[in-house]
Backbone:
C-alpha cells in the first residue's frame, strides 16, 4: 500500500505541480511547466492550485492579506511566539480544545501525538485504516521513527464500523480516524456511525485521535459545527494548507498536558523552527477567508458531480464512477476505463486548446486493481462556483470527444 502511486506521484498536485522537484529529469520538468502554463491560462477551471502562482505573486498577496488578520507592524515570531501563538489560540478556540501546538508538517504532528498517547495508554499499537495517510504517504514513519505498531480493523474502502472495532482480535491504545478518508474518495461515515465507532473504541479503553487534515470540509456532511465534530476525539490534527490555502503547516489540539508533551517531541523531531511567520500569517488568512467559503464549495461539488455523471452517460462512456456518487466534501474521485496517460493527454489538450480545465492529472488503479482503469481527484473551490450543470456537461462532451 505504501507506494500505490509511486513515490513520484503520491502528491502530484501538491509536490510536482506546486513547483517542487526540480531534480526531476528534464522531460518531466518540461511536461510540468507545460501543464502549469495550460492550467494558469485557462479561463475556466474548477479550482486554482498554489503551483499556478509564482513566488512573487503569492508573497505579494500574502503581504496584502496578512494586514487584515494580524498587526504586521509587530515583530515577527521567535521560536513560536507572536503570530504563531495567536494561530494556536484561534485554532484551539475554533475546535473547542484547551490547547494547540503548531507543527511544520502534519506528519510530525501526528507522530508526536500518537507517541504521547502510547506513553499514556501503555500500548504502542495504533488502529487505523490501511489507506490512512501514515500508511500510504509517509513511508511507514509511525513504525520506523516512533516505534509504534499499526493494525487495521478493516480494509473496506471506508472507515471501520463500531462492530469491527469491538470485534478486533487484539488490543490497541489509540484508534486513529482520518476524516475524510482521502484515498477511498474523501469519504465520511454518517454522524451516528462516527459517534458509535468512537464509543466502541472507548469501550476498549482506547483513546481516539482524528487525522483531520481536511476536518474543515466535514461540517456540511455531518451538519454539525467543527467544535462538536472535533469534540468527539481526544486529540485532533488539522492542516492549514489543505482546504485553507496556507503555505504549509499544521496544528495539534488536545488536552494541555498532551499538547505540552508534543511540543517536547516537536523539538526532538526538529520542528522547533526559528521563525514561521509567513506560514502562520497565511494560515490566519485561510481561517478568516477560506474557511467560511467551504460550505459553498461542498454544495457545489455535488452540482459538479451531477453534471459529470449526466455528461458521461450522454456521451456514451461505457463505464464510469463518481466516488462517492454524492460527494461528502468539496473533493471526490472520478474513475474511467482508459489508461492514465490517454486521459492526461485529453485533459491537457482541452486546457490548451479551449481554455477550459476540467481534469488535471490521472493515476492508474492501485496495485491489484484492474488494468486500463484510471482515476483523478477533483477539487471544487471558488472558480468552480461559476460552473452550472450544463457547463460541466459541455466540458465532459469535449473531453470525451478528445478520447475518441
Residues:
Amino acid at each position: 500500500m505504501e507506494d500505490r502511486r509511486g513515490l513520484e506521484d503520491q502528491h502530484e498536485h501538491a509536490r510536482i505541480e506546486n513547483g517542487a522537484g526540480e531534480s526531476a529529469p528534464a522531460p518531466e520538468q518540461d511536461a510540468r511547466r507545460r501543464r502549469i502554463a495550460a492550467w494558469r491560462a485557462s479561463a475556466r477551471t474548477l479550482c486554482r492550485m498554489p503551483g499556478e502562482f509564482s513566488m512573487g505573486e503569492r508573497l505579494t498577496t500574502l503581504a496584502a492579506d496578512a494586514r487584515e488578520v494580524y498587526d504586521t507592524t509587530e515583530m515577527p515570531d521567535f521560536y513560536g511566539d507572536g503570530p504563531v501563538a495567536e494561530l494556536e489560540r484561534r485554532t484551539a478556540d475554533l475546535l473547542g480544545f484547551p490547547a494547540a501546538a503548531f507543527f511544520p508538517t502534519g506528519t510530525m504532528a501526528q507522530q508526536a501525538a500518537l507517541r504521547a498517547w502510547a506513553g499514556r495508554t501503555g500500548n504502542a499499537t495504533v488502529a487505523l485504516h490501511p489507506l490512512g495517510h501514515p500508511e500510504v504517504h509517509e513511508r511507514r514513519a509511525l513504525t520506523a521513527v516512533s516505534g509504534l505498531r499499526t493494525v487495521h480493523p478493516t480494509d473496506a474502502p471506508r472507515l471501520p464500523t463500531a462492530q469491527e472495532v469491538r470485534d478486533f482480535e487484539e488490543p490497541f491504545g489509540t484508534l486513529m480516524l482520518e476524516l475524510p478518508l482521502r484515498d477511498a474518495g474523501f469519504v465520511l461515515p454518517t454522524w451516528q456511525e462516527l459517534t458509535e465507532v468512537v464509543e466502541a473504541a472507548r469501550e476498549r479503553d482506547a483513546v481516539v485521535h482524528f487525522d483531520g487534515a481536511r476536518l474543515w470540509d466535514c461540517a456540511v456532511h455531518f451538519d454539525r459545527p467543527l467544535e462538536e465534530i472535533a469534540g468527539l476525539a481526544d486529540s485532533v490534527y488539522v492542516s492549514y494548507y489543505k482546504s485553507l490555502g496556507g503555505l504549509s503547516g499544521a496544528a495539534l489540539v488536545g488536552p494541555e498536558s498532551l499538547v505540552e508533551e508534543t511540543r517536547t517531541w516537536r523539538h526532538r523531531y526538529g520542528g522547533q523552527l526559528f521563525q514561521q511567520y509567513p506560514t502562520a500569517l497565511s494560515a490566519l488568512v485561510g481561517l478568516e477567508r477560506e474557511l467560511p467559503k467551504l460550505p459553498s464549495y461542498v454544495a457545489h461539488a455535488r452540482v459538479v458531480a451531477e453534471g459529470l455523471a449526466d455528461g458521461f452517460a450522454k456521451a456514451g462512456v461505457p463505464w464510469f464512477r463518481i466516488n462517492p456518487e454524492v460527494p461528502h466534501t468539496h473533493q471526490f474521485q472520478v474513475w474511467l476505463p482508459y489508461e492514465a496517460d490517454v486521459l492526461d493527454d485529453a485533459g491537457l489538450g482541452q486546457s490548451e486548446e479551449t481554455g477550459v480545465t476540467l481534469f488535471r492529472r490521472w493515476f492508474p488503479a492501485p496495485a491489484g486493481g484492474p488494468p486500463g482503469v484510471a482515476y483523478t481527484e477533483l477539487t471544487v473551490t471558488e472558480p468552480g462556483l461559476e460552473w452550472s450543470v450544463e457547463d460541466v456537461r459541455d466540458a465532459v462532451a469535449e473531453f470525451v470527444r478528445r478520447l475518441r
